[in-house]
């Protein structure tokens, strides 16, 4: 249930009241990204009250983090944003003596997240996944003569994407994910900082802009599940939630997810503690609790995302651990890539180009 659980007024009050609250942990996470029973069980076990607020874009979280005084004890940036925020002094180094459950973490994932957070000194992995293509199976079959998508061609070739304009196409409002996808499709390094190549990637997205109905970061879940749209560039777990909601509703909508053969972004959502967290003790307790195998397994079984906790895998539902869209096979992993934060000069270019794409100007 990606939904705002607390009003804007509650968000505004957090910074002003958190410092005065003891026995409270303020958590700021992506919307619809945890089984709420986990929060209640944490409160029951520790006696620490959870105030849980949600956001739907890295850009929104970064604005709060770089401004300081957010009032949050635990936040969940994606890896490349985390890296930039660490450099800006936004997070405190973890006291690993207070995190005995670190022994449960998966070294394979920790090796990759260390690219963003050397030594994993400031964060733990919460979830990871890929950015690919969600689609209505019947709509794809009717338009392409196959019930499976294997290539980014369906998105980046205007003559193919145009076939889906009548049934609805959504794209993530995430330039740090879509620009690299276009770069990779064009044969460039998806982690390129070359502004000429980035402008070429933006021009590619601009060429398909007439066929994109909406840019956003969450609404495509319900839209796919209800059959209101037929294509969405989105996050793996979101698309799989849409698939399962459609199944539960028995509405006849079949949802598929593709990691295209050309490759896709592998991303990591990391839990970290702001440098000015009002209650770092409670924050460490929350992170340590999340790293319990049975707890993070419960979270993955709810949101249909992979997690970075090796010990949890024996507790995952078969439709999670056994789904190659969630835990991709080695041949798919070989084509996944990661990206780095854009330097300020390049970020300004990306922001300008993305604004132009979204407005269709």
TrEMBL record:
| Signal peptide per UniProt | 1-20
Report keywords, A-Z: Periplasm, Signal, Transport
Q: Which cellular compartments is it found in? A: Periplasm
Q: Does the keyword Manganese apply?
A: no
Cross-referenced SUPFAM superfamilies: Periplasmic binding protein-like II (SSF53850)
What Gene3D superfamilies does this protein map onto? Periplasmic binding protein-like II
Q: Which family does it belong to?
A: Belongs to the bacterial solute-binding protein PotD/PotF family.
What is the purpose of this protein? Required for the activity of the bacterial periplasmic transport system of putrescine.
Protein name listed in UniProt: Putrescine-binding periplasmic protein
Provide the species name: Paralimibaculum aggregatum
């Amino acid at each position: 249930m990606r939904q705002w659980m607390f009003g804007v007024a509650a968000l505004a009050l957090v910074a002003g009241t958190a410092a005065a609250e003891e026995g409270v942990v303020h958590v700021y996470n992506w919307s619809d990204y945890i089984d709420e029973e986990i929060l209640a069980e944490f409160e029951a076990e520790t006696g620490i009250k959870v105030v849980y607020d949600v956001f739907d874009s890295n850009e929104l979280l970064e604005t709060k983090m770089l401004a300081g005084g957010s009032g949050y004890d635990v936040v969940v940036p994606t890896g490349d944003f985390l890296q930039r925020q660490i450099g800006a002094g936004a997070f405190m180094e973890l006291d690993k003596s207070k995190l005995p459950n670190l022994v449960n973490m998966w070294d394979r994932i920790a090796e990759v997240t260390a690219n963003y957070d050397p030594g994993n000194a400031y964060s733990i992995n919460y979830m990871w996944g890929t950015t690919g293509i969600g689609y209505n199976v019947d709509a794809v079959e009717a338009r392409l003569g196959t019930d499976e998508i294997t290539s980014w061609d369906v998105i980046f070739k205007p003559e193919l994407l145009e076939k889906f304009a009548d049934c609805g196409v959504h794209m993530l409002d995430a330039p740090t994910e879509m620009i690299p996808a276009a770069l990779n499709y064009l044969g460039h390094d998806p982690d390129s900082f070359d502004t000429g190549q980035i402008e070429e990637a933006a021009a590619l997205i601009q060429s398909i802009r007439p066929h994109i109905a909406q840019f956003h970061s969450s609404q495509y879940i319900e839209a796919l599940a209800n059959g209101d749209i037929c294509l969405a560039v989105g996050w793996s777990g979101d698309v799989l939630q849409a698939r399962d909601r459609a199944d539960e509703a028995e509405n006849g909508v079949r949802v598929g997810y593709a990691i295209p053969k050309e490759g896709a972004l592998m991303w990591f959502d990391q839990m970290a503690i702001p440098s000015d967290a009002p209650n770092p003790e409670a924050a460490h307790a929350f992170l340590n609790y999340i790293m319990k195998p049975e707890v993070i397994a419960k979270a993955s079984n709810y949101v249909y995302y992979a997690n970075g906790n090796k010990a949890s895998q024996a507790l995952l539902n078969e439709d999670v651990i056994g789904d190659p869209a969630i835990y991709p096979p080695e041949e798919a992993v070989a084509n996944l890539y990661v990206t780095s934060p854009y330097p300020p000069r390049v970020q300004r270019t990306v922001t300008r180009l993305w604004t132009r794409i979204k407005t269709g100007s």
